[in-house]
Structures are given as C-alpha cells and as structure tokens.
Amino acid sequence: MSDTEECQNISNRPTAPKIPDGEKVDFDDIQKKRQNKDLMELQGLIDAHFECRKKEEEELIALKERIEKRRAERAEQQRIRAEKDKERQARREEERRIKEESDAKKKAEEDAKKKSAMTSSTYSSHLQRADQKRGGKKETEREKKKKILAARRKQLNIDHLSEDKLKDKITELYDWMRQLESEKFDHMERLKRQKYEVTTLRKRVEELSKL
C-alpha cells in the first residue's frame, strides 16, 4: 500500500469529537442525550409500526366490507335471477295453458263444423231426395190431374137438346161443379196439412243439427 492510500484511509476513519481545551466533559449528559435520541428513534419506529398496522387494519376492514358488499350483491343478483326464472316459468306455463285451451277450443270448433257439415250434407241430401220424390209425385199428380180433367172435360153438344133436357143438363152441370168445389176444398186442406208437416219436420232437423 502506498503512502497516499494509507493517508486517505487514515483520513476516512472516524475521529473522536474534539473537546475544547479548558472545558470539563460531562459524560452523563452525553449518555443522557444518546439515550434520548435512541428513545426518540425507537418511538418513531413504534409509531411507524402502529401507523402501518393501522393502515393494514383499515385495508383489511375495507377488504371485508368489499367482500360483504360483493356477497350481498351476488345474493341480490341470485334473488333477482331466481324471481325472473320463476316469472319466466310461470309465463311459459300460462302460455302453454292458453295454447292448450285455444287448441282444444279450435279442435272443438272444427269438430262442430265437421259435424254440422255432415248433418247439413245429410239434411241437404234428405231434402234433395224429398224434393226429387216430391217433384216426381207432383209430376205424377199433375199428369193424373191432366188425365182427370181430360176425362171430365166433355163437349156439351147441346144444340140438338130440347128445353127440358137443357134444364136437366144445367142441373147436372151445377151438381158437378159443386162436387168439384168440394174436391178442391179437400185437396187444399190436404195441401195445408202436408205443408205443416214439412215445416215441422224441417224445424226438428234443424234442432237436431244444432245439438
């Protein structure tokens, strides 16, 4: 080691404080000041420690509060979700019930329409057959009527008759007209009765078709 380096090392070494000449050194005071300084440093460390603990406790309390708040929020979210699921399920059940009722009603209406159509078809067929039959009967009755009228419509041939025979002929024709009026009245009454029976039958068929 060179002299320069050795001088530098010597200059870096701590040196004891110089005591002024002629003054008395109070070691008790120095010791007391040193103790006070150490106590102040220790108190500072203790205060810093407690301050750090206080901050940690505050952070821990804040963390617990956040955890509780988050837990309460999750519970509220779960409750809301459960209520929505319940409402959704109830709405689906209601929609399903309404759809089933609508389908049942629609099916019942379709069945009623089919039944009514079948009844109407049967009723129409029945009326058609009845009309055809009645038309045939009318045609037959009309032909019979023509034949009867043709048979009854006789020429008078009264040119060669005497007065007495003309009177007898008039009496005969008068009686014949009275007989025709009586037969006409009977036919009209029979026609009224037949119309009444047909109307009653139609009403019964309509009531049965409604049922």
From TrEMBL:
PANTHER family, A to Z: TROPONIN T, TROPONIN T TYPE 3A (SKELETAL, FAST) ISOFORM X1
- Lineage, top ranks: Eukaryota, Metazoa, Chordata, Craniata, Vertebrata
Q: Which GO terms describe its molecular function?
A: tropomyosin binding; troponin C binding; troponin I binding
Q: Does the keyword Transferase apply?
A: no
The record's annotation in Pfam families points to: Troponin
| A GO BP entry | sarcomere organization
Q: What keywords is this UniProt entry annotated with? A: Muscle protein
Q: Where is the composition biased (Basic and acidic residues)?
A: 20-32, 71-114, 128-143
Question: Biased composition, Polar residues: where in the chain?
Answer: 118-127
Family (UniProt): Belongs to the troponin T family.
User: This protein's superkingdom?
Assistant: Eukaryota
For the region Disordered, give the residue spans.
Answer: 1-32, 71-148
Q: What is the role of the protein in this entry?
A: Troponin T is the tropomyosin-binding subunit of troponin, the thin filament regulatory complex which confers calcium-sensitivity to striated muscle actomyosin ATPase activity.
- GO cellular component terms? troponin complex
The protein depicted here goes by the name Troponin T type 3a (skeletal, fast)
